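<backbone_tokenisation>
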Amino acid sequence: MEPFRCHTGIVVPLNRSHVDTDQIMPQQFLKRIERTGYGAFLFFHWRYRPDGRPDPAFELNQPAYQGATILATGRNFGCGSSREHAVWGLKDYGFRVLIAPSFADIFYHNCIQNGLLPAVVTEEAARVIIDRAQTHPGWRLTVDLERQVLSDEAGLHVEFHIDPQARERLLNGWDDIDLTLLREDRIQAYERRRPEWLPQVVRR
């Protein structure tokens, strides 16, 4: 994964709570075997009308929010099924940061595993951020993971919470394989001590 340190981008507000993963990535798009190409289906039933045309009332379709890389939303974002496709869709669309008062647990960990920062803020802070993004379309926010601070040019300063281990993984760009390789010397030492009569894993 690409290490995450500091990011500045346009904020798109999604003023809804309890957004579940079926709304983020509907079930009919879960048949793909790749992890890419899901951005076109993100929030599909909200982004598009029944005739297939984009709904201009939906935030992601409004011109001022084009190119947004930060999503500000309500509590319990990502609830519902554990489908990782929801995170793949958000990342493929271009989001780097999600801001909310809370996230569903499995969704939260899927974000970390895929390099997407889930920044947890208070209800009051989420309200301020959503309001600013709504009243000033195109508003840009800076997300500093090292300091765990959200800020803008007007002086906004909001601290956010993230699990310390998740923070370390994002700062270093570590996925599960990287974490395993950090202990490669111990793994090799164990393999050298392992009796030869036990089954072996042969590297090709």
